[in-house]
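seq as requested:
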Amino acid sequence: MPPPDPLHFCADALFDLAGRGLRRTLRTWIPTEGMRGTLDGRPAINFGSNDYLGLGRDPRLAAAARAAAEEAGGWGPAASRLLAGTTPWHNGLESDIARFKGTEGALFFPSGYMANLGTLTALSEAGSLICADALNHASLVDACRLSRAEVFVYPHRDMAALNARLADAQRRGTRRMIVTDSVFSMDGDLAPLPELVEIARRHDAALVVDDAHATGVFGRKGRGAAEHLGVADEIPVTLGTFSKAAASVGGFSAASATVVEFLIHRARPFIFTTAPPPALCAANRRALELFDGEPERRDRLWANQRGVVDELRGMGCRLTGTETPILPVLIGDEAAAVAVAEALLAAGCYVPAIRHPTVPRGSARLRISLSAAHTEEDLRTLFRAMQEFRGRGGSE
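struct tokens:
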């Protein structure tokens, strides 16, 4: 008889996920031109990417990375930032981030996830209170869980509930923090940042905003949702990532010089990890330049967004949000969402089905993510495919 397998629960769990239509597989995307390519060998237009400005295949980012790698004499520094890992490219990127976000300083992390974990766990302690929106990204959820603070999850965008909880904490003298995404990536809506700024001020709470899906996309200069909503100078700590509009890798925390220095001493995902390659820093610096220097990319993105919203509304699709380039079409049933996504792929459009646990059970959806690189023909193909989708659970 074979010896008992102490990890048999893995196979049991996968079998259960498959039975509920929740088992996932890694799919191979090979880009060809613009937002077109192949998914597992099938030609498709990519409507599942966060490459909002179409920089994913821009040769200028690759050229910047290549030049930095050659100048640095290699790839990675093989050391943490606090040892021998900090280079002029890291310092230059952080200066550029701070200038772009309008803050005194910034700290670069290997990913947005690590930026969120590092910042929130450093700024909180046992006995403090974090108030977090119910639809915050998983990285913020995990950061709150690791923070040792008391966490109050307020209903999505419910300012009355948030205000009441903070008032109680203020009476008790508890250190207070509000944490929210600016763009909620699975519902496609915006946080009410002006109201959050006012509530934070009223209750002497620190406001931390994850601007991952808004940086480069919102605002006249692409500075993000706070610029778009007129509160760009009133957010004490802004988190962000280069993995969306910059089509790269890495995260950051932008704040006062004092807060940034504090994070250098306390943010464990920064302290105890190897520094990202200088080439990555150079590519990210180039992306920031393009955010500022090529506003026409945002113009094309928003023109595409308005056209798709109008078309989907005309079809009767149930959209959970229409404020951002993320347009989720509500289906409900997980198996039905997967079936419709496969039908769209057969029609030449990759539109991923989002299911539990990413979204609550019974709220599965198609997540259309738009880019400045989508052409008129790309969108016409999407509209034809979505017309076929009508009557399969996606129309009112």
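The radius of gyration is 22 Å.
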